C-alpha cells in the first residue's frame, strides 16, 4: 500500500509537469513514511534547452534589428513566451522561448564589432556574423574554404541600410557644420565651439574605437589621409558614447541611433543633399555616411536554422521591422525623386515625372571593375527590372564621376561607368536603356578622400513614363 501511494504521488507530479508543459527533471529530496501516507518533496532542476543560433558582430545590428528578428523567428517555429534577457559572457543577449515539447529554444547574441563577428565566423565560434560592411579580401582568404564567396546571396543577406549622423548636446546652439570644419574638429585644428559660431567652450570630441565599422566609415568619408587628433576619446559602443554626449554640453560625436540628441546638418560644397538624410537619400545610399547592415553565414555550416533564419530575415515582415526602427530597406524599390532646387537643370529635366530605382551601382576609386558586392547589386537590380518588364526606351542610367580637375576627363569617366552598367544589365537579360553622363556634378562626398571619390563614381537607374 505504501509503495502504491508513493507511485500515485510521483505519477501525479509528473503528469502535472507534462500538463503544464514543463520538462524539468524531477529529483526526490526525501521520503518520510508514516502510517497514513508517504510524503515526497521535489525540486525543479535546470530546464532542457537547445541553442539554435549563435551570432556576433556589429553593435548597431545587435542593439536594434537582431532582437526583433530573433523573437519573430522563434515565434515562427512555434516558441511560446519568447523573452529577451541579458546573457553570460561572452554573449550579451539571450532570446529564448519554450517549444511545445517543453524544450527551451535559445538564440545567443554577442554585441561587438564587424571584425570580431567575422573572425568568430571564420573560426566556427558563431553561426552568423553581424556586419556593417562587406568582407575584406583578407577575411575571405582566411575562410576554411576561400573559394566560397561570402558576398553571394546564398551566404549573405543585406537586412537594412543605416546612417551615421553627427550629434551634439541638445542645448548646443550650433546647427550646421561643413565637411571641412568637421574634418578640422576631428584633426584637432578646431578646438573651440566659438570657431563654429557657438559658445566660447572647448570641443570634446568623441568617436568609436578604430576597429569599428562606424569609425572606418567616418574616417574614410570625412578624414581620408588627415590623421585624427590624439585627444579624441574613443568608445567601444554607440550606447556608451550616446550616454556621454547626452550629458556633456561641449560634446560632439557620431551616432547610428541619435535618440534625444541634436543632429547637426553637414554641408558639402556643390552637393545636392546634406545631413541628416531623409528616407529617399537613405534608401538610395546618396547620403555618404551610410552603411549596409548584413548577416553572413559560414558556407560549410549545415545548421538548418541558419538558412531558415536568413530566409526569414529577408522576408516582407522583416522589412516592416526595419522600417519601424527608422532604417531603410536594401532591396530595390521605386522612389519618387527628391529633386532639390539647386539640382542642375539638365538633371531636373531628365528626371521630371520619372521614378528612381533605389539601387545605385558604385565603383571604387580609380577602378572600372565590378567588385563582388556590385556584382550582387547588379544581379538584384536586373531581376527587379525583369519583373517590372521595363522597356529599353523607359530605362535611363545617369552616371557620375569623381572630380579629376578636368571637365572632359570627368565626362569621359562617367560615360564609361554608365556603359559598363548598361552592358552588365544586358548580360543579365535586361535591355540596356539610355546612358547620360554628368561628369563630376552633384558629388555625394568630398573628392579629397579615396572613399569619397568612390562614392561619387556611381550610376543611378531611372524609369521614365
By CATH, the architecture of the largest domain is named 3-Layer(aba) Sandwich
* Number of helices in the DSSP assignment: 15
CATH superfamily (homologous) name of the largest domain: Periplasmic binding protein-like II
Q: Kindly name the structural category.
A: alpha/beta
Please identify the oligomeric state.
single chain
Provide the number of structural domains.
Answer: 4
The number of distinct β-strands equals: 21
Strand content: 25-35%
Largest β sheet strand count, sense and barrel closure:
7 strands, mixed
The fold-level CATH name of the largest domain is: D-Maltodextrin-Binding Protein, domain 2
Distance between the termini: 89 Å
Strand order of the largest sheet: 4-5-6-3-7-16-8
Round the Cα radius of gyration to an integer and report it: 27 Å
Q: Please report the first level of CATH classification, the CATH class of the largest domain.
A: Alpha Beta
- What's the overall average pLDDT, rounded? 85
Structure overview:
- There is one protein chain.
- With 465 residues, this protein is of the alpha/beta class.
- It has four domains: 43 residues, no CATH class; 144 residues, Periplasmic binding protein-like II (D-Maltodextrin-Binding Protein, domain 2, 3-Layer(aba) Sandwich); 103 residues, Periplasmic binding protein-like II (D-Maltodextrin-Binding Protein, domain 2); 132 residues, 2-Layer Sandwich (60s Ribosomal Protein L30, Chain: A), CATH 3.30.1330.
- The strands form five sheets. Strands 4-5-6-3-7-16-8 form a seven-stranded mixed β-sheet.
- The longest helix is centred in the last third of the chain and has 21 residues.
Amino acid at each position: 500500500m505504501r509503495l502504491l501511494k508513493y507511485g500515485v504521488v510521483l505519477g501525479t507530479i509528473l503528469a502535472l509537469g507534462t500538463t503544464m508543459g514543463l520538462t524539468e527533471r524531477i529529483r526526490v529530496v526525501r521520503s518520510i513514511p508514516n502510517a497514513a501516507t508517504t510524503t515526497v518533496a521535489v525540486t525543479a532542476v535546470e530546464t532542457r534547452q537547445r541553442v539554435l543560433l549563435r551570432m556576433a558582430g556589429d553593435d548597431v545590428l545587435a542593439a536594434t534589428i537582431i532582437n526583433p528578428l530573433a523573437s519573430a523567428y522563434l515565434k515562427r517555429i512555434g516558441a511560446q513566451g519568447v523573452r529577451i534577457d541579458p546573457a553570460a559572457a561572452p554573449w550579451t543577449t539571450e532570446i529564448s522561448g519554450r517549444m511545445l515539447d517543453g524544450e527551451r529554444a535559445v538564440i545567443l547574441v554577442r554585441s561587438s564589432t564587424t571584425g570580431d563577428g567575422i573572425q568568430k565566423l571564420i573560426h566556427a565560434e558563431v553561426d552568423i556574423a553581424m556586419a556593417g560592411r562587406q568582407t575584406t579580401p583578407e577575411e575571405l582568404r582566411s575562410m576554411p574554404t576561400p573559394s566560397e564567396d561570402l558576398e553571394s546571396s546564398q551566404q549573405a543577406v543585406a537586412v537594412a541600410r543605416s546612417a551615421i549622423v553627427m550629434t551634439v548636446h541638445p542645448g548646443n546652439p550650433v546647427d550646421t557644420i561643413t565637411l571641412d570644419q568637421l574634418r578640422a574638429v576631428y584633426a584637432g585644428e578646431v578646438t573651440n565651439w566659438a570657431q563654429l559660431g557657438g559658445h566660447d567652450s572647448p570641443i570634446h570630441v568623441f568617436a568609436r574605437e578604430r576597429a569599428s565599422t562606424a569609425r572606418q566609415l567616418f574616417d574614410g568619408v570625412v578624414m581620408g589621409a588627415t590623421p585624427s587628433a590624439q585627444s579624441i576619446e574613443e568608445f567601444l559602443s554607440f550606447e556608451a558614447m550616446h550616454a556621454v554626449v547626452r550629458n556633456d554640453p561641449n560634446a560632439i560625436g557620431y551616432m547610428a541611433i541619435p535618440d534625444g540628441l541634436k543632429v547637426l546638418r553637414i554641408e558639402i560644397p556643390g552637393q545636392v543633399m546634406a545631413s541628416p538624410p531623409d528616407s529617399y537619400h537613405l534608401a538610395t545610399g546618396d547620403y555618404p555616411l551610410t552603411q549596409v547592415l548584413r548577416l553572413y553565414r559560414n558556407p560549410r555550416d549545415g545548421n538548418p536554422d541558419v538558412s531558415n533564419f536568413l530566409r526569414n530575415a529577408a522576408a516582407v515582415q522583416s522589412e516592416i521591422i526595419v522600417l519601424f526602427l527608422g532604417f531603410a530597406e536594401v532591396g530595390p524599390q521605386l522612389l519618387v525623386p527628391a529633386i532639390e532646387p539647386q539640382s542642375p537643370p539638365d538633371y531636373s529635366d531628365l528626371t521630371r515625372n520619372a521614378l528612381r530605382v533605389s539601387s545605385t551601382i558604385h565603383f571604387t576609386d580609380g577602378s572600372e571593375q565590378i567588385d563582388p558586392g556590385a556584382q550582387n547589386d547588379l544581379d538584384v537590380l536586373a531581376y527587379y527590372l525583369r519583373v517590372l518588364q521595363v522597356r529599353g526606351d523607359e530605362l535611363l542610367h545617369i552616371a557620375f564621376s569623381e572630380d579629376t580637375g578636368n571637365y572632359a576627363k570627368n565626362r569621359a569617366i562617367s560615360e564609361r561607368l554608365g556603359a559598363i552598367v548598361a552592358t552588365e544589365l544586358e548580360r543579365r537579360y535586361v535591355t540596356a536603356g539610355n546612358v547620360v553622363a554628368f561628369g563630376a556634378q552633384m558629388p555625394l562626398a568630398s573628392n579629397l578622400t579615396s572613399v569619397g571619390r568612390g562614392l561619387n563614381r556611381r550610376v543611378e537607374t531611372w524609369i521614365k513614363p
